[in-house]
Amino acid sequence: MDSIDILISILGSTIRLSIPLIFTALAGLFSERSGIFDIGLEGKMLAAAFASACIAYLTNNAWAGLGAGILISVALSLVHGFASITNRGNQIVSGVAINFIVAGLTIVLGQAWFGQGGRTPQLMAAGRFGEIKFPYAEELRGSGYLGKFYADVISGHNILTYLAFAAVPISWWILYRTRFGLRLRAVGENPGAVDTAGISVTWLRYRAVICAGILCGFSGTYLAIAQSAAFIKDMSAGKGYIALAALIFAKWKPVPVMFACLLFGFLDAFANFMQGKQVPGIGEVPVQIFQALPYILTCILLAGFIGVAHPPKAGGVPYTKER
Amino acid sequence: MSTASVPLPNWINYGLIPLLNLTLAFVISGLVVWLIGENPFEALKLLLIGALGRGEGIGFTLFFATNFIFTGLSVAVAIHAGLFNIGSEGQAYLGGLGAALVALALDNYLPWYLTMPVAVIGAAAFGALWALIPAWLQAYRGSHIVITTIMFNFIGAALMVYLLVNVLIVPGKMAPETRTFLEGGQLPKLDWLLAIFGMKLGAAPFNFSFIIALVMCVAVWFLIWRTKLGYEMRTLGISPSAAAYAGIPYARTVIITMLISGGLAGMMALNPVMGASARLQVEFVGGAGFVGIAVSLMGRNHPLGIVLAALLFGILYQGGGELSFDMPNITRDMIVVIQGLVILFAGALEYMFRPAIVRLYQSFAKA
Fold this sequence. Notes:
The structure holds 2 protein chains of 2 kinds.
Chain A lengths: L2 H31 L7 H19 L2 H25 L4 H24 L16 E2 L4 H5 L2 H11 L2 E2 H19 L1 H11 L1 H6 L4 H27 L11 H11 L4 H21 L3 E2 L3 E2 L2 H16 L21
Antiparallel strand pairs in A: 1-2, 3-4
Chain B lengths: L9 H26 L4 H13 L2 H26 L7 H19 L5 H30 L3 H22 L24 H6 L12 H18 L1 H11 L1 H6 L4 H18 L2 H8 L10 H11 L4 H24 L7 H15 L5 H13 L1
């Protein structure tokens, strides 16, 4: 295989690995821009993956699975909202709690219901989101690199992949071009001002965490019934945290979020490709370097060496209306 | 009138409210057990018998509790200074490297009681080192400690796997672990302590690090409530602006606090690495760093509370393991659920009952 063929195949898997990150990081974007830190992205994604796999198995319908994933993820968002908005609890603690509850509960329930050591039963084709072949993809595959790029990178993904890329401009439009988005960003910077304008801080923030829940529902569903054909225990495997890193790396902005997720997805794909391969002069590059790289890059960014990241000013601070 | 500013007596603040929160967490855990078709009371009975029924069970319970005392103290010290250290997991992992390097270097030449002080320092130093960069970033660059410590958990995990697979592995072996330490690099079992109560330790790895943990509890209590540094930490935790006006150096306090917190987390490694398996293994921390968050929250960040909470989680870990043998439907992961529920109700929803309790209290106080 020549090098451009290899590149195209790595790019194809970059897309596949980036999708859950894009959904999840956008989820974090909505929540954090409204001033609610969300460490619980990982848990919401995992819960959605489990719910979607269960329902898709029972109904043999992928869309029902997606619905269930979104529902459970929004429910967890509401728990997070109840703790951190209504009860003014610590947002980090609440997120950590959600991650633990989900990590345990998915395995306990999965084992009790299906008895396969935390796995859910393998899904049939109708229970999954299958690949969509674009017109002429097969015919163009043979006609040069551009055709191959079209067939392997642009075509041949499932519907959720294309939805993820659509979600980026939609999120941008909501956050920067609607009244709701303006208020959402304002409540993350200065909730007092929003309150003075007669707009409910509580309701705004609840809507923001619900948006986050919906997006995490998509990412979890993608993991379980689009990328795989079943739920496997702990299948989110830290992706929620990588998405969080991508969100920070992108400085809390929607379009850079997409590029940060693609970059981290590319690192992941490249690591898979490099496994067991010799690099002339260096030898085998340890795969752990690629695993750690997203986090290292984010820390370097946070140290202020790649521009300055300004988090939302009121992030993590519960809003108290009266004094 | 808002209920948030009404003062309540200590027995309500430190007794009733935590008890209510904890009860709710366990009631919901019971509901989960019931939901998967098992009897929660039967499960509780089996869990308690497994954890406290025999000397060996108690030994394992105390072994797990030792881990959680260290990580609980680690989280608590940081919280007193207003810092949320989620990185105890990674700091403990790196602490294991420090302990193992000392044990590997000295076990051939020294008896355990001479290796131990060096190993304590080694474990604490490596743990502290892993907290240093996040601390520095928080102190001088203002990047959020929660985010950086999460990142460092992952970086630490990758680093340790690399070291164990490529560097520390015994040549010719498949398992990514160091060689077994000789007796000079192992901490002795505390079988005599259980023998006082007429119990046999059996195979349980309850060892000397339990005593180190208790010493650290006293040391942390002294540090927080009896020293100038502790006073500065608490001031910073309660009001950063007051601390600034009082001339307490922000950056220095943050860094020292995180070093102590990381050091305590690092010392946790003594227990599994030198006390139990006598070698450094992949993922030996096994989530104990995260349990520390629950333990610290439940113990109200006080060493005494932390010991009690660590014992409770020790019982859950040991009893939960035994329970999964008797009721295969309830896997060990049930402990993780309970842990999460405790963090949710004792931590994030800490004040859920407060308004109602304030109203009740006021109506009683009037009468």
